[in-house]
Amino acid sequence: MVLQSLENNDRHGHSQIKICVSGASETGHCGLDALEKTKELGREIARQGAVLVTGATTGVPLWAAMGAKEVGGISVGFSPASSEKEHVEVYKLPIDYMDLIIYTGFGYPGRDLLLTRSADAVICGCGRIGTIHEFVVAFEDKKAIGIYEGSWEMSGELEEILAKSHRPYSKIINGPDPKKLVADLIALVEKDKEK
After folding, report:
1. Rounded-to-5 percentages of helix, strand, coil across the chain
2. Is this structure's pTM higher than 0.85?
3. Kind of pairing between the strands at 121-124 and 100-103
4. Are 77 and 101 in contact (CB under 8 A)?
5. Phi and psi for 142 in degrees, rounded to 5?
6. Pick the CATH number of 18-23+30-194 from 3.40.50.720, 2.60.40.10, 3.40.50.450, 3.90.480.10
7. In what order do the strands lie in the sheet with 172-175?
8. For 43-94, how does the pLDDT look when each residue is reduced to its tens digit (9 = 90+)?
9. Where are the domains of the chain?
């Protein structure tokens, strides 16, 4: 009976790599191509067999979830709210395109910590201060980090933060190609798991 249970867990992908997509909920500054580029990032995460993890908000996280679901991927959201009612009515956040939403009840800062720690890798797209926060938490936790380059400013800002940090970090991959970025991050995560 125990052996069957272990086999069942493996079949259901409990060991799948989880990739967090971090980005702005308000996207007016992201550029005209941000929607399609972010949806393609979500699609690519799903195509490569990873689980998408987001902050369960509008904008970049929602777009990534839309892309993942378009190709049959799994999408998990971490909400700042303590319940679905608070998520929808107080925070005004969507529940669409999520297979599961975890209601943290910790507001945005506390949610960010749980969100990044639940993932094996974090990809930062077009963002604002919350994206910087998630990036820094992932950096301090020694997570693999992808900086998704596009018409937005965030990739340059994160690179500037890194340059001024005076702390070398070998787990950061930059690039505008979602297929390569996701593949390189997965390879980095798998290499870390082997250690």
Report:
1. 50, 15, 35
2. yes
3. unpaired
4. yes
5. 60, 40
6. 3.40.50.450
7. 100-103, 75-79, 51-54, 18-22, 121-124, 144-148, 172-175
8. 999 999 999 999 999 999 999 999 999 999 999 999 999 999 999 999 999 9
9. 18-23+30-194
Please report the DSSP string for 13-48 in residue order.
Answer: TTT--EEEEE--SS-TTS-TTHHHHHHHHHHHHHHT
Residue 103: strand pairing partners = 79
Residue 179 Rama label (left phi>0; alpha psi -120 to 50; beta):
alpha
Q: Which two tokens stand for residue 194?
A: 């082997």
Q: What are the E-state strand segments in the chain?
A: 18-22, 51-54, 75-79, 100-103, 121-124, 144-148, 172-175
Residue 136 to residue 143: CA distance in whole angstroms: 10
Give the model's pLDDT for residue 14: 61
Tell me the residue length of the chain.
195
- Asked if 55 and 22 touch (Cβ cutoff 8 Å), the reply is yes
